[in-house]
Structure formats: structure tokens, C-alpha cells
UniProtKB/TrEMBL annotation:
Signal peptide, first to last residue: 1-17
Organism: Papilio polytes
Protein name: Takeout/JHBP like protein
Entries under InterPro entries matching the protein: Haemolymph_juvenile_hormone-bd, To_sf
PANTHER family the record matches: CIRCADIAN CLOCK-CONTROLLED PROTEIN DAYWAKE-RELATED (PTHR11008:SF32), PROTEIN TAKEOUT-LIKE PROTEIN (PTHR11008)
Keyword Coiled coil: no
Pfam families membership: JHBP
Any one of the GO CC terms: extracellular space
Transmembrane helix keyword on record: no
Keywords: Signal
Length: 238
């Protein structure tokens, strides 16, 4: 508990207080409340890393050769640089001890840039194009659901081992997508990412955002896994 409070104080001192959630008052012995509160305090700094727990900074996040495609269409992101994790806010953490599950909801800006190569056919048109791209939104809400297994470490303390079960996301602000000179447009809340319509160019293009979001979610879940494998439950619940 004291280590987590030190992290919170450092965050305020360094001028990042806007990312630190308000501390929820907990009753003595309320383990669920204490675990959620202490976890939110620590994770409010994830974008910059938590070296105390062996967690490196989430920025910059660089990925290479991400491929997507279907029905003769192929899109390769040769390089993908993802930014925005340092400005994430932890909106909510839900624990269900009866079902051994955890749900974490966070809101972040997202900007993915890099190079791409597109080939194949779309809507009966042959496409062969490469260039720079950008996927950007000021706010995207993500919820990650995990299964919890309680394990014992060599030190005799209890830890949580998390396994991701599913996730969901939605842009809260318009999602800007630019594919070089080939396409520039925006996904609004009136045209969800998952609304795939046959023979419609735009829903296919909107899926360009999915690899960036999926990669960021996977990296964040790695952070959650590391955090709960490094911090004993006894420390989080007091």
C-alpha cells in the first residue's frame, strides 16, 4: 500500500495529476475495494512504465509486418508506431470473486502511424498501392475482460494470474483514417467499426484501425499480467 501511495505522490509531483484517478475511500477490511483502488492508482502511470514492478513504458510502441486481408485482398502494415498510452485514464475496474473474473475499462487517445502496402481486389477493382498511413482518434474506450487464477509464489504470497477472455472497444470521438493518397476519411459514432456491409468500400477501410487497437490492447493486458504477478494480493488488499 505504501509503495503505491509513493507512486501516486510522484505522479502528482511530476505534473501528471490529470491522469491519476480520485482515490475511492474504502472501509477497513473491504478487500475488493482496496484491490480496485490500489490497482487504479498504480495503473494511472502505466503509460510511463512502472519500473518498481519491472514494467517498461508503453510508449513508444512499435510493431512490424501486421497483415490483414480476406477474399483476395491483402493489407500489410510494414511498420506501426502507436502513441497515446501515456494519456490513458482508468475509468473502471470490476471484480467478480464468485466467478473469478476482472474487467478493466480505460479511455485513451490513439494515434498509429507508419507505412503500408495494399494489394488485391476490392469491390471488383484491382488495388496495388503503398505509402504512409495514419489512424487517429482523441478518445477510444476499451474494456478488457480476464479470468483470474490465484497462485502462490516462492515467497509464500498469493498472486493473480490473468488470462484475457475477450475485449471490446468503441471510438468516443471521430476516428480519422488516412491511407496515403488513396483514402482519407472518418468513422463517426453513427457508423460503428463493426458494421460490415457487403460490397461497401468504407466498412472495409474502417477495419484498418483494428490492428492498431488490437495491438495496443494486447500490450496493455501484458502490463496487467505483469503487475498482478509482481504485487502480492496481501499488499493490494490493505
Amino acid at each position: 500500500m505504501y509503495l503505491l501511495l509513493v507512486i501516486l505522490c510522484c505522479a502528482v509531483f511530476e505534473g501528471y495529476a490529470s491522469n491519476v484517478p480520485l482515490v475511492q475511500p474504502c472501509l477497513l477490511g473491504d478487500s475488493e475495494c482496496l484491490i480496485k483502488t490500489n490497482t487504479r492508482i498504480a495503473l494511472s502511470r502505466i503509460g510511463y512504465g512502472l519500473p518498481e514492478f519491472g514494467i517498461r513504458s508503453l510508449e513508444p510502441m512499435t510493431l512490424r509486418n501486421i497483415t490483414m486481408g480476406a477474399d483476395g485482398f491483402r493489407l500489410v502494415f510494414r511498420e506501426m508506431n502507436i502513441a497515446g498510452a501515456s494519456r490513458c485514464n482508468i475509468e473502471d475496474i470490476q471484480l467478480n470473486f464468485a466467478h473469478s473474473t476482472m474487467s478493466v475499462t480505460l479511455e485513451c487517445p490513439l494515434e498509429a502511424t507508419g507505412t503500408f502496402k495494399m494489394s488485391g481486389s476490392i469491390c471488383f477493382f484491382d488495388v496495388n498501392h503503398e505509402g504512409n498511413y495514419i489512424v487517429k482518434t482523441d478518445s477510444i474506450r476499451t474494456t478488457i475482460n480476464s479470468k483470474i487464477d490465484t497462485i502462490y509464489g516462492a515467497d509464500g504470497h498469493r498472486y493473480w494470474k490473468l488470462t484475457a477472455t475477450d475485449y471490446s472497444y468503441e471510438p468516443l470521438e471521430n476516428l480519422h483514417i488516412g491511407l496515403g493518397r488513396l483514402f482519407v476519411g472518418e468513422v463517426t459514432r453513427a457508423s460503428p467499426l463493426y458494421n460490415v456491409v457487403s460490397n461497401n468500400w468504407w466498412p472495409l477501410v474502417s477495419r484498418v484501425a483494428e490492428p492498431a487497437v488490437s495491438a495496443a490492447i494486447a500490450r496493455f493486458h501484458e502490463v496487467l499480467q505483469t503487475f498482478f504477478l509482481r504485487v502480492p494480493l496481501e499488499h493490494l488488499s490493505k
